[in-house]
């Protein structure tokens, strides 16, 4: 079953689904410091920010805390979309775009900062190919790094990493005490 | 034909791994279901899916132990029979296993996940899998009493095997794209061995009478006869 068809379970500290009785976490609140650092990086120049994947909305909140011009969020899971829309209500500089980022990429603008953090994205390997067309010259991007080191899963050139100490509880997607935040500038 | 139900069975899972190698060659399962009676769509599975900036691999294997201590005659026409359920997209393969303590004396544990042998083929590829029906998986060379599986059933007091996905797990091929091959099992129905066992004892014709038609020779049961007139 594709992720987008999974029935998600929302708890205060995590989003997850189950298959064959096994729990698969999508996102957890222990990531707060990573989300804060990711938001700070993509917002360091202000301007227009693109966020691919809303999740628990942690990074969205941090992005809003910075001085930015616009904040575009793309979300495709049908159970998360209404939560993103509710969160965006009353925030004048936020636009929620529904659907697959890859399907609508040609209708997107270019951005000063891009944060890619999508779960179960069937088009994830299109992200590195599309990066240059999404980020303005001089703009920056980061993405979730599922590896506990500087493994460049997307093979994006000229990436640097900043290490952060984290303390995740046992889960199915990240169990290291070191997170390596990727940094890329166009 | 005779049948023998599995004495113990188990589903072991290796889930949420970031590479094919970690999922296939890992040593300790992430999930253990001992003697399950549920119906599992992923009893046998190889899955590669997109994770979160990465790939996620899930593998499921099903293990069986049979108490074959009561079988001593030559075995032919043997097969493993499993009740299918829900999912039917995988080709499956039977492989030898040393789970359950190696001889059935222990319950299966997470560390039995890799107690299988990929390079000793006892099974043939099960190309189809039927939902809600018995799936008969014939052993390789099963017409031959000296076939590996048949000899093991005859000579050992136990027979242990695992049923795994063939295309990627057995062949050790990393899926190049997202893949979900699975065969479901209804564990509520006992899996069983189906086999033909030749009667043990004297196995030669006597004065032109076929051995199959001889019960005794001069009052001695054929099962108790080693030789007749030095033959």
Q: Count of DSSP E strands of chain B?
A: 13
Radius of gyration of chain A: 16 Å
Q: Considering the protein shown, what is the CATH homologous superfamily of chain A?
A: Vaccinia Virus protein VP39
**Main beta-sheet strand count, sense and barrel state of chain B:** 11 strands, antiparallel
From the helix content, strand content and strand pairing of chain B, which structural class follows? mainly beta
Shape of chain B: elongated
What is the overall pLDDT average of chain A?
Answer: 96
Q: Helical segment tally of chain A?
A: 4
Multimeric status of the protein? heterodimer
Number of domains of chain B: 2
Strand content of chain B: 35-45%
Most residues in contact: chain pair: A-B, 26 and 20 residues
- Classified by CATH, the class of chain A is Alpha Beta
What is the approximate shape of chain A?
A: globular
- Share of residues in helices of chain B: under 10%
Fold-level CATH name of chain A: Rossmann fold
N- and C-termini, Cα separation of chain B:
29 Å
Fraction of helical residues of chain A: 10-25%
Overview features:
heterodimer, A: alpha/beta, Rossmann fold, 7-stranded mixed beta sheet, 3-stranded antiparallel beta sheet, 4 helices, 10 strands, B: 231 residues, mainly beta
Q: What would you say about this model in short?
A:
The complex is a heterodimer of chains A (186) and B (231). Chain A is an alpha/beta fold. Chain A has 4 helices and 10 strands, in the order E-E-E-H-E-H-E-H-E-E-H-E-E-E.
């Amino acid at each position: 079953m594709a992720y987008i068809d999974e029935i998600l379970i929302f708890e205060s500290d995590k989003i997850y689904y189950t298959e064959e009785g096994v729990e698969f976490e999508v996102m957890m609140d222990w990531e707060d410091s990573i989300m804060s650092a990711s938001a700070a990086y993509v917002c360091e120049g202000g301007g227009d920010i693109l966020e691919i994947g809303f999740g628990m909305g942690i990074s969205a909140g941090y992005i809003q805390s910075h001085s930015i011009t616009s904040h575009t969020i793309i979300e495709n899971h049908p159970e998360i979309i209404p939560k993103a829309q509710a969160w965006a209500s009353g925030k004048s500089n936020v636009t929620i775009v529904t659907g697959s980022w890859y399907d609508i990429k040609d209708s997107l603008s270019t951005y000063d900062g891009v944060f890619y953090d999508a779960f179960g994205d069937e088009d994830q390997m299109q992200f590195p190919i599309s990066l240059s067309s999404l980020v303005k010259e001089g703009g920056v991007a980061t993405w979730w790094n599922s590896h506990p080191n500087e493994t460049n899963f997307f093979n994006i050139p000229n990436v640097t990493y900043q290490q952060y100490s984290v303390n995740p509880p046992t889960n199915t997607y990240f169990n290291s005490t070191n997170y390596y935040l990727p940094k890329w500038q166009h | 034909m005779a049948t023998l139900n599995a004495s113990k069975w188990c589903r072991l899972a290796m889930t949420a791994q970031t590479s094919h190698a970690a999922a296939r060659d890992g040593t300790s399962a992430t999930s253990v279901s001992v003697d399950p009676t549920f119906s599992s769509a992923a009893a046998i599975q190889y899955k590669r899916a997109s994770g979160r900036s990465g790939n996620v691999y899930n593998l499921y294997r099903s293990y069986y132990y049979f108490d074959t201590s009561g079988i001593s005659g030559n075995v032919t026409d043997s097969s493993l029979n499993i009740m299918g359920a829900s999912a039917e997209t995988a080709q499956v393969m039977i492989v030898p296993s040393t789970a359950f303590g190696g001889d059935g004396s222990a319950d299966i544990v997470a560390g039995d996940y890799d107690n299988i042998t990929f390079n000793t083929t006892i099974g043939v590829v099960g190309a189809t899998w039927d939902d809600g029906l018995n799936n008969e998986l014939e052993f390789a060379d099963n017409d031959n009493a000296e076939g590996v599986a048949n000899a093991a059933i005859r000579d050992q007091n136990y027979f242990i095997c695992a049923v795994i996905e063939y295309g990627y797990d057995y062949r050790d091929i990393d899926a190049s794209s997202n893949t979900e091959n699975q065969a479901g099992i209804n564990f509520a129905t006992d899996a069983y061995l189906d086999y033909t066992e030749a009667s043990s004892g004297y196995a030669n014709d006597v004065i032109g009478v076929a051995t199959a038609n001889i019960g005794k020779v001069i009052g001695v049961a054929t099962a108790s006869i080693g030789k007749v007139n030095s033959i």
